[in-house]
Write a structure and sequence with these properties.
Serine Threonine Protein Phosphatase 5, Tetratricopeptide repeat, mainly alpha, binds adenosine-5'-diphosphate, 0% strand, binds magnesium ion
């Protein structure tokens, strides 16, 4: 059944689906980072999402925001690397922005993404076009902000599509941040690994909300 609002335990279940999807995608993420970086992104994300599963499984959370904060903390403490800190911040800052709201709707989706991506950009220093996870996060955030009046199931699917388009657009960018920047023009034609992760996370969230 497709949902238009999520409780804290729905958000927990959604993030457990996300964790399984990222763990299953480890080889894809490894290949993406091997092409442009050092190849550890798949392992790092799988380790982070294993920690997320341990932090969330069979626990009750007082609000959706607290679930995302727990996700961020688990990623931050287990992953290491650039993406551990950045994905950790994304979920922690995003979760904090939700306060004690009991429901997660398209309004909270936009707040989660806006506060998360702003924190990632402030701390990591990447801007749109630098060929990083930001290039999937910014279009996803802008789409969420356009769709705060839409039901969550519609908004989150379009947000996931925007993240996938951002991932695809990153193929045509020249890396100017992170390890890939030393490749210069040779970074063209491949997507950024972090953007691939963002697209997988967003698609998994949309599938959960759609009841798929
Ligand atoms: P590391 O770069 O330490 O090996 P990972 O391989 O796990 O870490 O993650 C690499 C991804 O992290 C990149 O594909 C990119 O999306 C993201 N990333 C790296 N540095 C930054 C940054 N300064 N700002 C935003 N994202 C970044
Ligand atoms: Mg790497």
């Amino acid at each position: 059944m497709s949902k238009t609002t999520l409780t804290a335990s729905d958000v927990r279940d959604m993030m457990l689906v996300v964790a399984d999807r990222i763990i299953a995608a480890e080889p894809i993420l490894t290949d993406a980072d091997r092409a442009l970086g050092d190849g550890d992104h798949g392992l790092g994300m799988a380790r982070g999402m294993t920690a997320v599963k341990e932090a969330l499984a069979e626990k009750e959370f007082p609000s959706p925001g607290k679930v995302f904060i727990a996700v961020g903390a688990a990623m931050m403490s287990s992953m290491g690397g650039a993406s551990g800190a950045l994905f950790g911040m994304l979920f922690r800052a995003g979760g904090k922005a939700l306060g004690d709201h009991q429901s997660f709707t398209s309004v909270e989706l936009a707040a989660l993404l806006r506060n998360g991506v702003d924190q990632v950009m402030a701390k990591g220093g990447a801007k749109p076009g630098d060929k990083t996870m930001v290039d999937a996060l910014v279009p996803a955030t802008e789409k969420a902000e356009e769709l705060t009046d839409a039901p969550l199931n519609e908004a989150i699917r379009q947000v996931a599509n925007a993240a996938a388009e951002g991932r695809d657009a990153s193929e045509q960018m020249i890396a100017t941040m992170g390890r890939a920047k030393t490749l210069g023009n040779n970074s063209l034609g491949k997507p950024d690994a972090g953007a691939v992760s963002v697209a997988i996370i967003a698609a998994a969230m949309a599938d959960y909300v759609a009841g798929e």
